[in-house]
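FW: tagging you since you asked about this chain on Friday. Here's the raw sequence from the shared folder, copied in full. Didn't touch anything.
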Amino acid sequence: MSEREDGNMKLFLPETRRNRTKYLEKIGVDFKNLVAAKLVHGGRVSVVENFENPIIEDVDGLLTRNPEVVLSVTSADCLPIFLFDKEKKVAGVLHCGWRSVAKGIVENALKKMQEDFGSQSENILVGVGPGIQKCHFEVGEDLLKEFSDTEKFVEEKDGKAFLDLTGLVKEKFIENKIKPGNIEIDERCTCCDERLWSFRRDGRDEYGEIRAMMVGIKLNS
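HL: got it, structure written out here
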């Protein structure tokens, strides 16, 4: 996962290719192997066979078992999720904002791993990356209506509601038979940690663009 010092990684900006290439060189990855999701805050997950198509349209999750492919999404408060099936050697990355979670991206990704690759729940490892945490994720009633049984993930403070999206996502994985011991969480808050971009804290730049990190995953060859 890139950081603020690596520059803006949002797709389709003039500096995007330069920033991504420089960052990937730093971590020893070839830019030509990168496949990026063009996010729509939805629940769709696609399987990537190769890196001939570097941009996958209208998805918020990518899966592959090709060790040459680097899968990537962008993030600037939404939770980046890393998936790995240690038996079938399948990797995945998800962009989990509240809209994607409400539209079933967790369930869709796990179902696709099972149907396309024969993955078993007990073999899937989940990494939840840094995102906006409950301390800063103030939400309204319209958002809360998108979920059922969210009371334990909502904290009322000074007449405002704050959502624990990380806790909610973790529970969704557990409900779908992922072992709690197979879930690892980075509890950093993007809004608190100034090494990371945060849309809620930073807003848009002078050109009206969001600043975002790039999050990627690659299988070992």
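FW: The chain has six helices and 13 strands.
HL: agreed, and Residues 4-131+178-218 form a domain with the CNF1/YfiH-like putative cysteine hydrolases fold (CATH 3.60.140.10).
FW: great, closing this out.
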